[in-house]
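seq:
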Amino acid sequence: MKFLDRLTKVAEIVGSLGIVISLFLVSVQYENNSLALKTSTANSVNANIADWYNSFFENTEETESFLTFLADPESVSQTEKFQAIMRLHSLNLHLQNALYLERQGVLDENLRKTISMAVYSGLQQPGFYYWWNQRRSMYTEDWQNFVEGIIASEEETELEELFNVFTKEETSKESQNKSSQ
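struct:
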């Protein structure tokens, strides 16, 4: 009986060790899958935004119409105005999604610089404000606040400063949320 008892205990130890090793391997695989998923998501976000630019700027007529809308929204036809608004809406849905994923930790926070640049570049154009006043309510509150923050920034603000302001605001909000829990 002693031999069987010892053999049983050894089998239990080996079995437990096997479970521990399996759990370790699962955690390594999980980390690798998480990285692969984040990479795939980042590629997808970039591809969506690049597709928007590529499809749009392949058509010279649409590009001219869009640029005219940005400079003076009242100078284009209703159809051209609608197309321009839909183009901006589409781009901003992509950018909103990218910001959300960045804030969830899926995308690198430096992506916010690119997003800020895309929004900031439209600030000198009346068509940007025409579109924003029409479509603002169709976006998430977080995106609305993000765009409004850029609009409220000074004209000479460097992108790095803008990025730092939004990063500090986000860190402050996270700290407040943790404190209240």
